[in-house]
Design brief:
The chain has 210 residues and is α/β, with parallel strands linked by helices. The protein contains seven helices and seven strands; from the N terminus they run αααβββαβαβαβαβ. The protein binds zinc ion. The site of zinc ion has 8 residues, from loops.
C-alpha cells in the first residue's frame, strides 16, 4: 500500500505518461507542485486545460497556431515560394530562432518509420504534394532530422516530387522546382530540436540540391 495520498499518486501517474519522465522525476515534480503558491498552480492548470481549445492546425502548413492560416502563412513579407519541410512544430520554433529563414514551412507531424507502422500516409506528405501541385513553389528545403527515419522521409518526398515533375498532363511546370536538403553542420543521428542556432544557420546556408 502506498503511503502517499491518492491525489499525489494520481499526479505522479500523469507525469509518468509524459516523454522522458521516469518515476523519480514524476515524484519530484509532483512534490514540487505541492509547494507552489495556489495562484501559480491554478494558472498552470488552466494553461493545460485550455491548451487544445486555443490551438488549431494551420490548413496550409499544418503547424500549430492560434489562427488559421498561421502567422507565417498569412505574412506577406515571408517568401511563400520557399517551403521548409520539418517533422514537428518544435523544429519550426528552432528554425525561427535562427532569425535567418524568411520562407514558409510544412510540418509533417512525424517521420516515416516502418518499425512503428508509420508510413507516408500517416504523416502530412500528401498535403505537401498537393501544395506543390498548385504551382508557384520555387524551392523545397527538406529539413527532416538527420537520422534514419528523417532520411527515409526526405528520400520518399524527393521521389514523389520527381514523379510529379515527370507526370503526364501536369498543368503547372514543376521542372524549375529545386529540392534541397539541410546537410552541412548537423551531426548525424541528432535531432533538429537539439541543434543550436549557429549550427542550424550553417545547415541552412550549406543546403545542397537533393
Ligand atoms: Zn501555416
Amino acid at each position: 500500500m502506498s503511503v502517499l495520498p491518492k491525489s499525489i499518486v494520481r499526479l505522479i501517474e500523469h507525469f509518468q505518461r509524459l516523454p522522458g519522465i521516469g518515476p523519480k522525476t514524476a515524484s519530484r515534480l509532483s512534490l514540487y507542485l505541492l509547494n507552489m503558491p495556489q495562484p501559480h498552480l491554478e494558472a498552470l492548470a488552466s494553461s493545460i486545460a485550455g491548451l487544445k481549445k486555443s490551438i488549431v492546425f494551420c490548413s496550409v502548413c499544418f503547424n500549430i497556431a492560434e489562427a488559421d492560416p498561421c502567422p507565417v502563412c498569412s505574412d506577406t513579407q515571408r517568401i511563400q515560394e520557399l517551403i521548409c519541410v520539418v517533422e514537428s512544430p518544435v523544429d519550426v520554433f528552432q528554425v525561427e530562432k535562427t532569425g535567418k529563414y524568411k520562407g514558409s514551412y510544412h510540418v509533417l507531424h512525424g517521420a516515416i518509420n516502418p518499425l512503428n507502422n508509420i508510413g507516408p500516409d500517416e504523416i502530412r506528405i500528401n498535403e505537401l504534394l498537393q501544395r506543390i501541385k498548385k504551382g508557384g513553389i520555387k524551392e523545397i528545403i527538406l529539413a527532416t532530422n538527420p537520422n534514419m527515419e528523417g532520411e527515409a522521409t526526405s528520400m520518399y518526398i524527393k521521389r514523389e516530387i520527381y514523379r510529379l515533375q515527370h507526370a503526364n498532363g501536369q498543368k503547372e511546370n514543376l521542372n524549375g522546382l529545386l529540392v534541397t536538403r539541410l546537410a552541412h553542420g548537423l551531426p548525424v543521428g541528432a535531432d533538429l530540436e537539439y541543434a543550436d542556432e549557429v549550427t542550424l544557420s550553417r545547415a541552412f546556408e550549406g543546403r545542397r540540391e537533393y
